[in-house]
Every structure is written in C-alpha cells, then in structure tokens.
Amino acid sequence: EVQLQASGGGLVRPGDSLRLSCTASGFTFGMYDMSWVRQVPGRGPESVSHITGGGVITYYADSVKGRFTISRDNAKTMLYLQMNSLKPEDTAMYYCVSGGNWGQGTLVTVSS
Asked: What is the mean pLDDT of each run of 10 residues along the chain (112 residues)?
C-alpha cells in the first residue's frame, strides 16, 4: 500500500522559511517521479514542483521559482520542499504526490 505523509507545515510570517518533508512507503521510491501539489479551499490544485526519480530534473511553477527548492533522498525514501521568502499567497494545504497517489497534506499558513 502506497503511503505518503507530508509534514513540516505551520504558521509563519511573510518572508519566513519552512521545510516540508514527505515520508514515502509501499513502493520503489527511487523509480518514481514525485511532486508537491498545493490546494486552497474552493480552488483547484496547483502543481508547485516536480522531481524525477533520480533527482536530476526538477520543475517549478512560476509562482514559486527562485524561492522553493525540491529535493529527495532515495535512500531514506523522503521528499523535501524548502520554501523561502514565503508570501501570503503561498498559504495552502501542501501534498506530496506520486503516480496519482496523494498523501495526507500539511497546512502552510503565511500571515502577518
């Protein structure tokens, strides 16, 4: 059974940083691309960042480019999202996603 559990969210002020983590299990982690997707209530999901199985190729939404960094540790089956210079518009529930499987999200709230 595929299990994905995101953690690391919280309430921060604009300009602060957070590091999200995702613990993965139940599949051969290193063989799968992974994504971070965020969603605000009442709006559709937004793909924030994506990384290939080997970690060589990454993608970022224009809204987070230059501020967020995705990474993975295949030995530990962990996915990360380093979020710097956070803005109020980054407020959302963040999910790690792989192969159509969504884990439990972690809430990020950016507010002064």
From this structure: 96 98 95 96 94 93 97 97 98 95 95 96
First to last CA, the chain: 40
Cα 52 to the center of its chain, rounded Å = 14
Annotate 77-111 with DSSP letters as a single string: TEEEEEE-S--GGG-EEEEEEETTEE-B-EEEEE-
Rounded Cα distance between 101 and 20, Å, is 18
CA nearest to 37, candidates 112, 93, 91, 95: 95
Contact 21, 6 (CB under 8 A): yes
Token pair 């518009």 is found at 89
Q: How far apart are CA 56 and CA 51, in angstroms?
A: 7
